[in-house]
Amino acid sequence: MRNTAIRRVAIGVVVVIFLLPVAFMFSGALRPAGGAPPEGFDLVPDVMTFENFRVVTSIIDLWRQMTNSAIVVALAVPTTVLIASWAGFAIVTGARKTRRLLLIASVVALMVPATALWVPRFVMFRWAGLLDSFWPLIAPSLMATSPFYVLLFALAYSRIPRHLFDAARLEGLSSLSTWWGIAWPLGRPTAFAVAMLAFVFHWSNFIDALLYLSTQDNYTLPLGLRTLQTLEPTLHPLMLAGAAIATVPALVAFLLGQRALFARTLEV
Known about the structure:
Layout: H1 2-29, H2 51-59, H3 62-93, H4 96-111, H5 115-127, H6 135-138, H7 147-158, H8 162-170, H9 175-186, H10 188-203, H11 207-212, H12 221-225, H13 236-267
Helix pairs in contact: 1-13, 2-13, 3-4, 3-7, 3-10, 4-7, 10-13
């Protein structure tokens, strides 16, 4: 009982730490623009207004930018999950030497700083004529976006009894059929987790948008919100209103994804 109580308190503290900034953001978005920032932990403004949400959409083309971000996410997230799942399956089912090499390559790739790839990628996309388009933002999903996602799938598939894969091989099933019939159904909780992580990454991807996009019609939401930084400090509720609008889709995706994740976990 004592351990359970301590665990619940620890979970509650972590939840508060993560939710407190979100509460301040939505609270600040409801304050009238032009006033001084609140002092201390004043979560409930004296005067509440939703006018900031209307004004911020008139300052930047928020809905177009959200549509652009949604297009990137709709293409990048499923591709990330599929490629990461295939790569993780290849690591688990390959020969011993192959598995070791693939694991080492994944860990090494994970250790490469993202800043080291900015210039080579920019040169490559400029040579391919893909600058100022969505393709440079989607392209990382063709490599599973991050080696971390590949390792997550490899860990999940390594927990599947090996004799299931051996039986499928004896039945004459191809690697793709084995993945589809055995690995993928048993690894769906991991797929939901990777999908949520990939959604957050691509939805909030600011650096790649800054590097590759130059036309305002192609701006994604993180790049569009950068425009709000030029406002005066007294107009901070407008910046918070834009941030709140950008956060809502990520929160909805997380709530839907975690519900499906836990449902699948209980089934398994």
